[in-house]
Structure formats: structure tokens, C-alpha cells
């Protein structure tokens, strides 16, 4: 009986840690920096579902933020962010991309 209670305790603790970790990612998965105009630029991440006909390069062109110099550079970043070893993606797959939001100082 004690062994069973101990196992339940570890399972409950593991699930609780996982929930806290996931909530933390959702809350803290953003960064900010101030640009030369004194504006705050926030960087966020979101997951998009790949549609038929999408390519990694097209998605990179559509979602690339200003901090990258070229589409090729951002394709490499997308591949690292999503643990991809090639440019091949499939419809229905999910991809994490970055996007920015600028807050203008008053």
C-alpha cells in the first residue's frame, strides 16, 4: 500500500511539474528589446499548421522578422527551432515561427 501511494506521489509530482513548465513557456516565451527609435520590439513565437503547397522558404519569406538579413538565414533558424534536418515539410505538420510586435513609446 505504501509503495502504491509513493508511486502516485511521484506521478502527481511529475504531472504538476509538467503543467508548471508548460504554463511557464506560454508566459515567458517572449523577449523584448528597444530599437533605435526608442520603440520596444517584442518577439513572440507561435505554431502554424503547414498547408498543402507550403514550402519552408515561402513560410520563411512570410514570417521573417527584421533581425534577419536574408531568407536563407531565417530558413536555417526555422530548421533549428523545429529540429528539421532538411527543407522538406508536409501539409498538416506544425511549425514554430517567430513574429514581432512593436510598442511605440508615448
Would you mind describing this structure in some detail?
The chain is an alpha+beta fold and 106 residues long. It has a domain at 30-103: Membrane-bound Lytic Murein Transglycosylase D, Chain A, CATH 3.10.350. The protein has three helices and three strands; from the N terminus they run αββααβ. It has helices at 2-28, 56-63, 71-81; strands at residues 30-34, 40-49, 94-103. It has a three-stranded antiparallel beta sheet with strand order 1-2-3, with no helix packed on it. Helix 2 (56-63) crosses helix 3 (71-81). The longest helix has 27 residues, at 2-28. It is flat. Residues 26-30 have low confidence and may be disordered.
- Largest sheet, described in full? 3 strands, antiparallel
Please report the distance between the alpha carbons of the first and last residues: 63 Å
Oligomer: single chain
Rg value = 19 Å
Shape field: flat
- According to DSSP, the number of beta strands is 3
Query: What CATH architecture of one domain do you see?
Result: Roll
Order of helices and strands: HEEHHE
Helix content: 40-55%
- Sheet with the most strands: spatial strand order: 1-2-3
Would you tell me which CATH topology of one domain applies?
A: Membrane-bound Lytic Murein Transglycosylase D, Chain A
Percent strand equals 15-25%
- The low-confidence runs, each spanning 5 or more residues with pLDDT under 50, are 26-30
Helices, by number, come to 3
Based on helices, strands and strand pairing, what is the structural class? alpha+beta
